[in-house]
Amino acid sequence: MSEYERVRGGKLKLKGESDKPKKRKRKEKKISKTPLVDKDAQSHGNWWKTTKVEEITGSVAIEFGSRTYVKALDNGLFTLGAPHDEGEGPSPEEILTAVMISEKKVAFKSGYDKYLRVEKDGTVTGRSDAIGAMEQWEPVFQEGKLALQGYNDCFLSVDPDDDAIIARTKKAGPEEMVTIRSHITREINPLKDVPTEEQGDIKQIEVNYVKKFQKFQDKRLRISKEDTKELEKAKQEGAFHEALLDRRSKMKADRYCK
């Protein structure tokens, strides 16, 4: 039998195949990087809606209503441009350059290289070569809405008689609500304010916290095998972290659990 065993030699060997056992390669989990789509920006030619003062810089457009923008005229006045189709951005004469002056105030320059200001009669013009007190605007954000306040404490609006751009009303109502759209490149990251441990699905979050708090005597992760439905329920009820700690304590895998 011993000679037979030597001849049989086990499994078939192919030419060039090594006798050394093959190491199994770990398959890395592919993280889905599905880009976040801003449908509102897409419908405006990829001009996105600003939501805070520091975003109002570079190329911008001031929108009244839906896809109608403040338009510069060659005589230094401004009017409301014609409505654009869905998916279309503002025209060149409707594009302004925003300049941050302070944490609260900005200035706007037209395509004619002149700064917007409010005249004594409340008319908005673009004839200034430099930024002074009259060329400064304060974006006022409140409850997801925006109004632009001029140096005269009046808000930007449209004259209903001739579509001229004015600032004559000291109280911001529906007619004074605007949207300032930007075209500068931005990185959309919905998780930027979410702690690293909180990123991922329920299972991944539990693994993240185990890695953070586990006592690594044997360098092996101890993950609860209980159903994660209880964790999902706890998250909805606001007791997510307590539930995670309870699961880790049952596994005796947390340095804060006795």
Please describe the biggest sheet, giving its number of strands, its sense, and whether it closes into a barrel: 7 strands, antiparallel
Radius of gyration: 31 Å
Q: Pick out the low-confidence regions.
A: 1-15, 27-34
Number of strands: 13
The proportion of residues forming helix, as a percent range, comes to: 10-25%
Q: Quick check: average pLDDT?
A: 81
What overall form do the CA principal axes indicate? Answer: elongated
Folded structure, characterized:
The structure is a single chain. The chain has 258 residues and is α+β, with helices and mostly antiparallel strands. The chain has two domains: 39-182, Trefoil (Trefoil (Acidic Fibroblast Growth Factor, subunit A)), CATH 2.80.10; 196-250, no CATH class. It is built from five helices and 13 strands. Strands 1, 2, 3, 4, 5, 6 and 13 form a seven-stranded antiparallel beta sheet that branches. Strand 3 and strand 4 (78-80) form a beta hairpin. Helix 4 packs antiparallel against helix 5. The protein is elongated and about 75 Å long. The protein starts with a helix and ends in an 8-residue tail after the last helix. The model is unreliable at 1-15 and 27-34 (pLDDT under 50).
Q: Could you give a quick summary of the protein structure above?
A:
This protein is α+β, with helices and mostly antiparallel strands and 258 residues long. The protein has 5 helices and 13 strands.
